[in-house]
């Protein structure tokens, strides 16, 4: 038995003994005595209030906070009784009543926790709205009890919870703004019981219009949305119901803080890993019944909210373009349902940007919010997202990034030097991509940039591609042809070939350079889209010949170039580099109709092959074999017709037939007669020993 110095004067010894007795009936009788004692002190004209304070101190410190479980139970029962005795004036002593009771919420003994819950219920019942001044403390305690392992404690907490909700509903002066941080803090809990408790409180506050909980949406939205990922279906349904109510309230409100809400939604939209199952944007909350745990439901609901806010906010969404673009690029890595919703947002955002751009460019645009570059958004942020996702592992993300890159180019009249450098570098790096669609799209954007005055980007592209091809033999052999074809078709083919000729000139000893020339030659002779370039090559007029290195070997190259009689045309601009690969130089000469030079080149090749190592000879023969196959293609149809001309000296094409007889495997038809296959080789026009 405790012997507090004031106990004998305030609480009879027998009452104190019964208060801590193991028998509940004795504790209950002692509690009634304390209630009556407190009522008497309340009616006492002198010293009553001080006595009550002392009684509560004894019950709290010496009993409710005792190390003995029975004393703690007795103290809680006594404090509950004292609260009932105080009646409507109990609020004056809440600072003495609440701390010991709330402390017992964490007690290891479930009966102590139950009595604590019962005591707080009695305190709340008599103090009514006055207890709301301490609501945050009480709420924290309830969060612990609602998930209690003991069902009796849990039931008691539910009764207390309902009482507090009724008290809140009656209040018109409770300051909800002080409670929101506490609610936000507890929304991070992952336990189903706590989540059920929290969602119940949000639903209660939603049902009381004057609290206007939607004004605090940004504080609670994240915590509620992530509950859609809960294992418990009831929690998901409850969260969906709360969110549906919040969204309806938001749609009817004109006071929406987009600056606070949009970042939360973007964060939620990029949280969970994708799943194959899901729901469409127009499905009701009832559809949740068919799902088990939906890990991408969080993403989809956040995206649906964004769709709704974009419809309502229009250009007020534009400042979040950078965040939205990054979100859309991430969505390409998600489930089909997420991609469908993100596609809807993508289309809506593009439309908003285009409308805003037209408004800005309109001469009548004299008012309204604008941003310096990009029509209402931070273009650097968008560019950073695009650049980052050009290296994304999924093709869809890279293509989406390029589509946004294309839109940015259309919207940018000017661009900072550092940003321009980064954008160009990212686009050129995208040309390394294994997907041809990515390469094609990158090239089209580069062409657009060049047309918009971003400088001569072609030398940068060509030099970067040469380095890329030569960085890996496998890339050079397997991918260079496809990339070069895209370059030649999408960009100006003549400029591409001249730039490669310039970049590769003087690198005849480099195997990579020779392979690139081979690839370019095959593309020139076989790709239909290069027909205008081929026609120009055939019909170009000669210009002054520069003395360049034309060599198979330098002296021989200069000798061949001198055949142009001091004049240079498009053909001669390419020839120095094409001379790195004799068979390619021959193909170029034949295509351009330079038959005399072709003949001389064939003769020189025959002479050189006698002295070349076996491997190089085989390489040249393989190249010639490829050329022979291409001779029958439509590209060389004019030349084949010219072969029907008499091969007489002084006639326009008299060098063509001798040239072809040196490397074609079959007799060349003559218009005068068909040669006898049994005739000597010299009479049939077959290659001599030199070939």
Strand elements, count: 2
The neighbouring-strand order within the major sheet is 1-2
Give the CA-based shape: rod-shaped
Structural class: mainly alpha
Average pLDDT across residues?
80
Distance between the termini: 124 Å
The largest pleated sheet is described as: 2 strands, antiparallel
Strand-residue fraction?
under 5%
Outline of this structure?
With 691 residues, this protein is mainly alpha-helical.
Layout of secondary structure:
Blueprint: H1 7-10, H2 13-19, H3 24-43, H4 48-64, H5 69-86, H6 94-103, H7 110-127, H8 135-145, H9 151-170, H10 176-186, H11 192-206, H12 217-225, H13 233-251, H14 258-269, H15 297-313, H16 321-331, H17 336-361, H18 379-389, H19 395-411, H20 417-430, H21 436-451, H22 458-470, H23 473-478, H24 480-490, H25 493-504, H26 511-526, H27 531-539, E1 543-544, H28 554-561, E2 567-568, H29 570-578, H30 582-591, H31 595-609, H32 614-631, H33 637-642, H34 656-661, H35 681-684
